[in-house]
Amino acid sequence: MNVELLKHILDYSNRLSATYNITQVLKMAIDASLEIVQAELAYLVTVDEQGELHFIVHTRVDTPTDAKAADDLSRTILNEVLQTHHSVVITDALSDERYSTKSSIKNLQCRSVMCVPLVVSGKAIGALYVENRTIKGAFRQEDLEPLIIFANQAAV
Fold it and tell me: What is the end-to-end Cα distance of the chain in Å, rounded?
């Protein structure tokens, strides 16, 4: 049992229960995700009935929130997760044969990526996406657990 992870989740749950502001709740989910998995970028994206993406929260460790969030993540990976409802952990997208030829991967120089769907009643309503462009292999399969917890909280 990872005691540090449990402490982070408990802290997040306590802060979550102290607010009723949905924007604040979602921002907390993103911030907690960044901190726990040591990501550089994090996004919470929803998709509406027409399939249009809405970038609800976008956070970068090194800079303030950027209004151009839609241009700053791999839509290839995001769309895959939204369509399949399956989480992904990619250790180096630039050398992964599934993604290396995709323009978003090459243009953004994506390395380590994790993406978890937000699922409600069997339908993907969005995704939680984190990335580390500096380090390949920054994320492991076991890093998905906290992301799934935060994605479930955000979906509710």
Answer: 26
